[in-house]
Design goal:
globular, seven-stranded parallel beta sheet, 52% helix, alpha/beta
């Protein structure tokens, strides 16, 4: 069953998007939003049962019966498994118009409690989990002379706060990668976006809160949570406009302050940290 096609924005009609990490959270909301605008969707994630449930939800959002929704069950860091699955998809449906990389997680913790494996794991998932699909599909995009690749960083991709020593570097890395690819691949007609979401009400955010140091939790308790759907709407609108930096909610203000007044933003962050430590009796 598909949604009734009445007075809808169908700017993505006939186009195809592969959404890695599209079974939950912002990824699923993005897939739903793109499907509602007419796009064919393929979502990639590890768990087939979760993929099937998400695909059913995405299908109900489709604008017409000609659209398709497919799933690929794979860890996006596993190139040996993912490559043949994506190659089969391209052979069947052609080069996608969009590759949207939503893969990632956060493990906030006191830095002295972290092991090197914690850093490696966050980099493996957050960086290589987005790089591998790009690496696989890039020859197809270059040959087609088209394509839009959207990666997901974070507000922690342009400044860092305590508790995010494993997460922030991986999100900075995504920004660096996307900046390079934007520049190098411009002659090939390939365009890029980076999403910088603030705190979003997702299952991943709930897990994140389970290990968040108390100071960090206090610093973020006044931040207004965005819904995945609200972030997805801003994200998809930004991609359609070929915006490079997409900053939903209060992410734009933090980005503006850090770009133009980095010392002021660090002062605010340091003050909040000191207040939290005082409340906890640590100062």
């Amino acid at each position: 069953m598909v949604a009734e096609n009445v007075n809808r924005d169908l700017r993505l009609r006939g186009q195809t998007a592969i959404v890695c990490g599209g079974s939950k959270g912002i990824g699923k909301a993005t897939a739903v939003c793109m499907a509602a605008m007419g796009a064919n969707i393929c979502i990639v994630a590890r768990e087939q049962a979760v993929l099937d449930a998400a695909a059913a939800e995405i299908l109900t959002a489709c604008a017409d019966a000609e659209q398709f929704v497919e799933t690929i069950s794979s860890d996006t860091t596993d190139e040996a498994r993912l490559r043949p699955l994506l190659e089969v998809f391209v052979a069947a449906h052609g080069v996608p118009d969009y590759l949207v990389n939503m893969v990632g997680y956060a493990y906030p913790q006191y830095v002295q409690e972290l092991a090197l494996d914690d850093y490696r794991r966050n980099m493996e998932v957050n960086y290589y989990g987005q790089l591998v699909p790009i690496h696989i599909l890039l020859p197809h995009f270059i040959a087609a002379g088209k394509g839009h690749i959207a990666n997901v960083s974070s507000m922690m991709g342009y400044f860092g706060i305590m508790g995010y020593a494993t997460y922030a570097p991986s999100k900075f890395a995504i920004v660096g990668l996307t900046e390079v690819l934007r520049h190098e691949l411009k002659p090939y007609g390939i365009t890029f976006s980076i999403l910088y979401p603030p705190d979003v009400d997702t299952p991943g955010f709930e897990r994140e809160n389970q290990t968040k140091p108390p100071e960090c939790a206090m610093m973020s308790e006044n931040a207004k949570l965005m819904s995945p759907e609200a972030v997805a709407e801003v994200f998809v609108t930004g991609m359609l406009k070929r915006k490079f930096n997409i900053l939903p909610g209060n992410a734009w203000l933090a980005w503006f302050l850090f770009r133009h007044f980095p010392g002021l933003l660090r002062w605010f962050l340091d003050s909040d940290y000191q207040k939290a430590r005082r409340k906890l009796g640590k100062v």
